[in-house]
């Protein structure tokens, strides 16, 4: 009879170890998924910011006949807002009738 009792204990330990490993794998997959979603969200935020800036710049040119001199002008007069902690926007004007050079850079966390 002792032979069977020992075997049950061994099976119990194996099952417990297998359950713990499976739990860790599930947790790792969960965190990988969260990380992937976060990266995708940031990419969509950047694309949205690019679209908003270009829409504001072209709207300003259509209404006023010149491109805005700086981003501050777009913020004040055309309602442009973005999270400055996430993105750095480099806005360089070449002339009043030439489309400005706009560069958006993601800041590191």
Helix content: 55-70%
Annotation field: number of helices: 2
DSSP E strands, number: 2
Q: Give a quick account of the main beta sheet: strands, pairing sense, barrel closure.
A: 2 strands, antiparallel
Distance between the termini: 62 Å
| Average pLDDT, all residues | 87
Portion in beta strands: 5-15%
Tell me the Rg in angstroms: 28 Å
List the secondary-structure elements in sequence, H or E: HHEE
Oligomer: single chain
Uncertain runs: none
Strand order of the largest sheet: 1-2
Using the alpha-carbon principal axes, give the shape. rod-shaped
**What is the SS-derived class?**
mainly alpha
Explain how this protein is built.
- By secondary structure, the protein is mainly alpha-helical.
- Helix content is 65%, strand content 11%.
- A two-stranded antiparallel sheet has the order 1-2.
- It is rod-shaped.
Describe the structure using short key phrases:
109 residues, mainly alpha, two-stranded antiparallel sheet, 2 helices, 2 strands, 65% helix, 11% strand
Concise description?
It is built from two helices and two strands, in the order H-H-E-E.
């Amino acid at each position: 009879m002792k032979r069977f009792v020992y075997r049950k204990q061994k099976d119990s330990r194996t099952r417990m170890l297998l359950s713990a490993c499976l739990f860790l794998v599930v947790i790792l997959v969960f965190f990988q998924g969260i990380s992937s979603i976060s990266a995708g969200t940031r990419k969509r935020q950047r694309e949205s910011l690019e679209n908003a800036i270009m829409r504001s710049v072209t709207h300003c040119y259509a209404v006023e006949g010149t491109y805005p001199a700086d981003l501050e002008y777009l913020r004040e007069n055309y309602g442009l807002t973005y999270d400055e902690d996430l993105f750095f926007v480099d806005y360089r004007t070449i002339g009043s009738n030439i489309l400005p050079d706009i560069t958006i850079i993601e800041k590191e966390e």
